[in-house]
Amino acid sequence: MRTQVAIIGAGPAGLTLARQLALQGIESIVVEHRDRAYIENRTRAGILEQPTVTLMHELGAGTRLAVEGMDHDGFFLRFDRTTHRLNFHRLIGGHATVYAQQELVKDLVALRLEEDGPILFETKVVGIDTRADGATLRAERAGEIVTIEADFVAACDGFHGVGRAHIPDSERIEITRTYPVAWLGILARTAPATPEGMYCAHEDGLSLHSMRGPRITRQYLQVPADTDLDDWPDERIWDELTRRSESIDHPELERGEIFDRSLAPLRSVVCETMQKGRLFLLGDAAHIVPPAGAKGLNLAVSDACVLSYALGAHYKAGIREHLDSYSTTCLPRIWQAQYFSWLLTTTIHALSDDPMDLRLRLTRMQRWVESEDEQRALGEVYLGLPFPTPWAYN
Ligand code: FAD
Ligand code: DHB
């Protein structure tokens, strides 16, 4: 097989890039390790920034999103048993939209298969070879080896993929921080606690109350990093969510059937070496943000815009410089998202027993709810900084 761009991974980064390339008349092959049902049902992110929503409309992937997505103006913040509302829309316009990642994946998969070309499902890339004039992927499919020749490789293969590992350790600048906590996430059949998502910064740890619809909630609990899900029967989860979200101004949390549960570690990683020759890293393959603030999916989409634009410039106008500057174009926005996620993470989680830390966190949150300047600064990043480049080269 031969193509212009070989894309490893059919997550948000790979599927967005594939669509952007198709709309620019650039061929690609998408190779995905898992089957279609698996990627269309994987429970993960849920908050889309305004630029992500606008982009999905431009890509023709916004029809269901427009109907089923829920626009939120900001979020609620609860501390000292008191609820506050941060309304960013009022200050700067735009929205965050609640729309599950797997729904976006379904929409992009359908578009790709109907209009743009195949996705090689159940095909695992096992080898990458890059040269001055092109690249070769070796993949395993039903026990056979498939070879794909391409001009470029877009590694959109997530944190544990083969793309980043292709860049030798000695050449890779990678900056990492791990936190001693994880998020235990559930989906449950209950009404949302508040009309928009709510972070509860209890002194024993965070609880987060989000939603996927009027009768489905997505809720998270801060737990120790070495937590075993088996130690958390439903009763214990509800007791802890209820305790951490106690307030003087709202009724107690509604309980219901829990039908999905998972653990996610908290870490920050930026691989600043996002390219080597004809290989480019996008999304989680290049960086991980801790989940507070919901930036991961949105960053994946932002990287896809930058690479799509650079490949457009290369194929349409013979301009190479945007490809050469891919990493340096992406990195400032990635670091802004890392900073925001770090700020939120260290403010709303209980990460130490030190009473000084607790007082300082409460003081910071008090400032957030009192100062419009602080809210504007938070809101600009929460609702989404502009993407570094347009996605299409004209
Ligand atoms: P992925 O979605 O991981 O896709 C990579 C794909 O590559 C996968 O389909 C994988 O099967 C495939 N692959 C891997 N290796 C190979 C191989 N060798 N060959 C072929 N295919 C391969 N982000 C937000 O923006 N908002 C949120 O609210 C949010 N909440 C989250 C909650 C949780 C619990 C978790 C875990 C994450 C959350 N995130 C959130 C992060 C978000 O889900 C990720 O940042 C996002 O999925 C990154 O997209 P991606 O396309 O880069 O990678
Ligand atoms: C959700 C995820 C987040 O990381 C967050 O900060 C807020 C909401 C969610 O899954 O709905």
UniProtKB/TrEMBL annotation:
The protein's matches in InterPro entries, at most eight in alphabetical order, are given as: FAD-bd, FAD/NAD-bd_sf, RIFMO-like
- Pfam name, any one: FAD_binding_3
Q: Which Gene3D superfamilies match?
A: D-Amino Acid Oxidase, subunit A, domain 2, FAD/NAD(P)-binding domain
Which keywords does this chain's UniProt record carry? FAD, Flavoprotein
Which SUPFAM superfamilies does the UniProt record give?
Answer: FAD-linked reductases, C-terminal domain (SSF54373), FAD/NAD(P)-binding domain (SSF51905)
- Domain of life, per the record? Bacteria
Q: Where is the FAD-binding domain?
A: 2-338
Matches recorded under NCBIfam families: PRK08243.1
User: What PANTHER family does this protein map onto?
Assistant: P-HYDROXYBENZOATE HYDROXYLASE (PTHR43004:SF3), TRK SYSTEM POTASSIUM UPTAKE PROTEIN (PTHR43004)
Protein name as it appears in the record: p-hydroxybenzoate 3-monooxygenase
What species is this protein from?
A: Rhodococcus rhodochrous J3
